[in-house]
Write a structure and sequence with these properties.
With 226 residues, this protein is α/β, with parallel strands linked by helices. The protein is built from 8 helices and 11 strands.
Amino acid sequence: MRVLVVEDSTRLQAAVARGLRRSGYAVDVTGNGEEGLWLATSNEYDVVILDLMLPGLDGLTVLERLRGHEGGAHVLILTARDTVDDRVRGLRAGADDYLVKPFALEEMLARVQALCRRSYRRKNPHIEVGGGLLIDTAARTASRDGAPLELTAREYALLEYLALRQGEVVSRSDIEAHLYADSAELMSNVVDSAICSLRKKITPPGTTPLIRTRRGMGYVLAGGNP
């Protein structure tokens, strides 16, 4: 999943970005409202974390212009303002959730996870895939036939993204856009290598691979039947 953090406090920006990256999210950051709006309208994000007090453009203006641009990303507002009027203004401007500073990093991550599920019309944090594969998006863990899978943060993020789009063909460009914020990471075979590594880890010997390649199209996470 790809997240944009628009926060002018360098200390908080670094802490939030670090927590998200450790959880496997691809993260872009900025401390300026104008740049935040440009990034949000130029890239495909699952969630935008938006401070209200920003230089350049304030957070509410960024939010209103983003919604006017038909931006599809869910928006989590961060603010030190804790009055009902402030929360109502943000929600009416198009925010999807509201988090008051100071906050626990675990709560922020939980809210981001919930917004990501909402992006793919899923309320249940557990995703079951045919073949005994179970993904817990709240705990950010996966198991097959009850046995835990040892996945890196990036491998988990890839599996979750494919699971949220289970049964759909997911193109290489979609995976790059949602999982790789840094273009320096995008070597020509980085997605193929990630898929190959993940496929091995979730496929016990003698079972049908759940991740299938559609030549010239992408990849699909399907059930256990060919």
